[in-house]
Amino acid sequence: MSEVSFKNLIKVKESLDTCFKCSLCKGNCPVSEQIFWATFSPRGKMLILRSLLRGQGTLTDRVRDSLYTCTLCGNCDNTCIAGISVTDVLAAGRRDLYEARKAPESVNSLISTIKESGNVFDLTKEDMDILGLNPRMKFSENADLLFFKGCYATYHSIPNESTMRSFNLLKTLNVDFTILEAEECCGSPAYLLGDMDTTKRFCEYNVSKIEETGASRVVTACPGCYRVLKQVYPQLVGTLNFEVIHITELLAEYIDEDRLVFKKTGNDKLDVLYHDPCELGRHCGVYDAPRKILESIPEIHLEEFDKNRDEAKCCGGGGGLTISNPNLANQIAQLRLQEAEEKNIPTVVTACPACQLNFSASKDKYNMKVKILDINQLVGSVKGL
C-alpha cells in the first residue's frame, strides 16, 4: 500500500492492535442497524484499517465506502470494553485517505465547495439574506459576547429560523452581542471528512476575526461548530483568548441567574421528546443545559427517548453521511422518529441544526406526522417570557 502512507493511522496503531474483535461496538451502531455486512460495522472498519496499515489489504471502492459510511456518532466508543476510541481511529484513516487523494468523489466535491464558497451549501454571502436573516437587525461592533452562526443556521431556511429566534431572544433579554459579518465555515465538515489543512485554514481565519472583536465569549447554536471551536481549534492554534459555549449553556446560565424566566400562560402542556445531538452530548458532555431549559417552561412536559444522554441514538446526519449516503441517513433518522410516534409524543426537540435538517428530511420522505423543532425555535416562540 505504498500509495497511502498512513502516517495518521500509525499514531493510533496501539488502538488498532488492542481491539478485541468482540463486536460489542456493533450493538449501538446506527449504520449496523441498517447495513448487515460486517465490513460496515465498527469492528469491520477496525479490521480493515489494521489490514491496510499492515500492508495486507486492498483499498477497493467498497473499502473506501465502508470507511465513509459512518456518522462518527461515538456510540461505538461508549460500548468498547477495551476503552478504544473507534471514531479517533476512523478519523485518522480518513485523513490518510484524503491526503493520498483516495477519498470518495462525494467527499472531494464537498470539500472543494467549502473551500470555494466558505460554506457547505455553496452559497454567497448575499444568499443568507434571501433565507431571512434580517439585515436590519443591528449588532454591536464590539461586545463581550459573539454569536458564531455557522453554515447550517445561516444558509439553510429551516435552521435559519432558529437563528433568528436566538437573536430575537437575546435582544429581548437585553444581551449585548456581536457577530462576524465575514464569518467562514467553522471547519467541522472538513475535519470530519479528513481534510486537516482546510480545517486549520478556517480555524486561523475565524480565530483572528473573533479576536479582532475583543469578545471574551463565543456562543453558537450548532454542536458541530461548538465542538470544533472548543476542542479542535486549541489543538491547531493553541490556547484561545475566548471561551466557547453552546447557546443552551448560555440560556441555562440566564435561568440560574433569573434573567430568563418563563411565566405560566394557562395553556395546555405540550409533550416533547428531547433528542441529544451526538456532538453536543457524547462528544462534549452537554446534557443538562437543554433539559434545564425545557423543564423551566411551564407549558412543556419533557419526556425521554429510551436511549438518551450518552446512549442516545444518532439522527443519522453526522460524519458526512448525508453527503455519502443520504438515503441511509434518512433511514437512521426514521428509526428515531418512529419511537416518538410509538410513544404518541407529537414533538421532537433537538439542539442541533444538522439533526433538525436530517429529521425533517426523513419525516417528509416517510410521511411521518411528528413535529421537529430546534430548542431555540421552541423557546423563542414561547409566550410569557
Q: What's the number of extended β-strand segments? A: 8
How large is the radius of gyration? 21 Å
What does the largest sheet look like? 4 strands, parallel
Question: How many angstroms does the end-to-end distance come to?
Answer: 62 Å
Tell me the β content. 5-15%
The CATH architecture classification of the largest domain is: 3-Layer(aba) Sandwich
**Series of H and E elements:** HHHHHHHHEHHEHHEHEHEHEHHEHEH
What is the multimeric organization of the chains shown? Answer: single chain
CATH domain topology of the largest domain: Rossmann fold
* Overall pLDDT: 92
* Percentage of residues assigned to helices: 40-55%
Low-confidence stretches: none
Q: Categorize the overall geometry.
A: globular
Which strands sit side by side, in order, in the main sheet? Answer: 2-1-3-4
How many domains make up the coordinates? 3
Summed up:
The chain is of the alpha/beta class.
Protein traits:
about 50% helix; 19 helices; 4-stranded parallel sheet; 3 domains; Rossmann fold; Fumarate Reductase Iron-sulfur Protein, Chain B, domain 2; about 375 residues; alpha/beta
